[in-house]
């Protein structure tokens, strides 16, 4: 027997050596009798397969399958079945004689009574009884009801009956009086009242109550705001289609509808052409080429050597002249600044104060003179006010007319504008001869949706574009990976 190896990879032996029961020729081979049994995980699918492939597992599976087959076919184990169920006594060919004695009509009736093959296939051939439905036999509060029955049996022996039995007996002894149905004369004598009037009999118990009490007790409804009674648009809910959209229109009506659809298409074509003109390249410019684009990108990056000047030639003379000018500019404001900083005399201050007082007095006199002159301008001021009021009235009327004109138009409720739907029209060659061959035009759901937008009930919308903000990452779960 060779000793076990203690190297990194020398302790392992090949699969062929482990499968056979013989000792290998390698120095690292291990005796199969001394090799420890490999224990893998039993809760994984790999462990199930390993256990099922062992001889003991195969024998257990075969035994259990045989037991299940016997239970399905014979209703139990064959070894436990009695002899009368397994064997029968052959008494001869009585059945053959009976078949010979039967007439054709008797055989036909037997064939009709025999179930079909299709029904036999669908029948349950298993002898295993169905499991008992425990929930079907359970009664809710069974123990409580049982104790109650035992209690009333005990009380019945003492002469005391349950409450419902006592009530039934009392009802039999004293039957309720039948109420007479109101006749027509009683209906006439009943006073009439207005259900919606404030002084109706139903609201008399609530008269004089506090408003807060009525609101808290739900006896007074919530006041609806006045704008809920105003329609957002005067457009009718269902607009009548033109006569040219009928299934059998007249020639004039159909041509009128075709003209309206043609004008809509012309307007769309004009808008498309206008957009193309605005986006087109002007005639004075040339389209950009690859070379011109490259030159534009290189502007300012490359410097030419011809325009460079040597240092010390031209720029040296300029700062000298500039320096002289700056010196003169710095020396000239010096006396002015010194003169401004001199202190004023008392006489100068009095003169300035008197001049300021004189200017204020003159401004007051001028304002008083203007107010006095306005008294003689009352007629002109009245005419000016009248003209202003007339202008305001004219603008108010203009806004009212414009508001009435825009009442039927859809307003801008969102970021999108309302777009009128396409005109449902058929060409002259598409008109059907009969209702059987008529093709439906339009969509009721789309028509109602556009009607809501036109009546300012909802804002114009467009279909949302689905755009994923993140990249989809596929991850394989650990349980799935272990099964594979």
Task: List its salient traits.
484 residues, mainly alpha, disordered N terminus
What is the structure about, briefly put?
The protein is mainly alpha-helical. Helix content is 49%, strand content 0%.
Number of strands: 0
Q: Which stretches are poorly predicted, pLDDT < 50 over at least 5 residues?
A: 1-19, 309-331
Number of helices: 20
Q: Roughly what is the average pLDDT, rounded to an integer?
A: 80
Describe this structure in words.
With 484 residues, this protein is mainly α. The chain has 20 helices and no strands. It has helices at residues 15-19, 45-52, 55-74, 83-86, 94-101, 104-113, 117-122, 134-137, 142-157, 163-173, 184-189, 211-216, 251-279, 290-297, 317-331, 333-340, 346-374, 378-405, 444-454, 478-483.
Write the layout of secondary structure elements.
Elements: H1 15-19, H2 45-52, H3 55-74, H4 83-86, H5 94-101, H6 104-113, H7 117-122, H8 134-137, H9 142-157, H10 163-173, H11 184-189, H12 211-216, H13 251-279, H14 290-297, H15 317-331, H16 333-340, H17 346-374, H18 378-405, H19 444-454, H20 478-483
């Amino acid at each position: 027997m060779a000793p076990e190896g203690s190297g990194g990879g020398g302790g392992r032996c090949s699969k062929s050596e482990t499968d056979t029961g013989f000792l290998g020729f390698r120095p690292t081979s291990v005796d199969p009798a001394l090799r420890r049994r490999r224990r893998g995980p039993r809760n994984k699918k790999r462990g199930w397969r390993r256990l099922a492939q062992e001889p003991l597992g195969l024998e257990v599976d075969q035994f259990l399958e045989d037991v299940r087959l016997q239970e399905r076919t014979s209703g139990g184990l064959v070894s436990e079945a009695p002899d009368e169920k397994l064997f029968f006594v052959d008494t001869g060919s009585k059945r053959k004689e009976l078949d010979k004695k039967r007439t054709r009509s008797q055989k036909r009736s037997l064939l009709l009574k025999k179930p079909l093959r299709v029904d036999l296939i669908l029948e349950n051939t298993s002898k295993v009884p169905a499991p008992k439905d425990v929930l079907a036999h359970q009664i809710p509060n069974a123990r409580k009801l049982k104790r109650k029955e035992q209690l009333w049996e005990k009380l019945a022996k003492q002469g005391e009956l349950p409450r419902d039995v006592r009530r039934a007996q009392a009802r039999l002894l004293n039957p309720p009086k039948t109420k007479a149905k109101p006749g027509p004369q009683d209906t006439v004598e009943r006073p009439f009242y207005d259900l919606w009037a404030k002084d109706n009999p139903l609201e008399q118990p609530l008269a004089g109550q506090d408003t807060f009490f009525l609101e808290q007790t739900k006896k007074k409804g919530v006041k609806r705001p006045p704008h809920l009674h105003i329609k957002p648009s005067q457009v009718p809910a269902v607009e009548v289609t033109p006569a040219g959209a009928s299934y059998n229109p007249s020639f004039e009506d159909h041509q009128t509808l075709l003209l309206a659809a043609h004008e809509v298409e012309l307007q769309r074509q004009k808008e498309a052409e206008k957009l193309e003109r605005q986006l087109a390249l002007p005639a004075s410019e040339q389209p950009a080429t690859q070379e011109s684009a490259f030159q534009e990108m290189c502007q300012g990056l490359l410097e030419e050597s011809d325009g460079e000047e040597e240092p010390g030639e031209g720029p040296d003379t300029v700062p000298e002249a500039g320096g002289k000018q700056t010196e003169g500019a710095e020396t000239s404001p010096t006396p002015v600044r010194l003169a401004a900083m001199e202190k004023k005399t008392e006489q100068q201050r009095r003169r300035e104060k008197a001049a300021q007082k004189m200017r204020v007095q003159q401004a007051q006199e001028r304002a008083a003179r203007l107010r006095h002159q306005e008294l003689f301008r009352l007629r002109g001021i009245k005419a000016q006010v009248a003209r202003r009021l007339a202008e305001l009235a004219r603008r108010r009327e203009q806004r009212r007319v414009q508001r009435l004109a825009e009442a039927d138009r859809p307003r801008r409720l969102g970021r999108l504008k309302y777009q009128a739907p396409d005109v449902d029209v058929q060409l002259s060659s598409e008109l059907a001869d009969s209702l059987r061959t008529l093709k439906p035009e339009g969509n009721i759901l789309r028509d109602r949706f556009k009607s809501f937008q036109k009546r300012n009930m909802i804002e114009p919308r467009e279909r949302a574009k689905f755009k994923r903000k993140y990249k989809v990452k596929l991850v394989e779960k650990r349980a799935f990976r272990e099964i594979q």
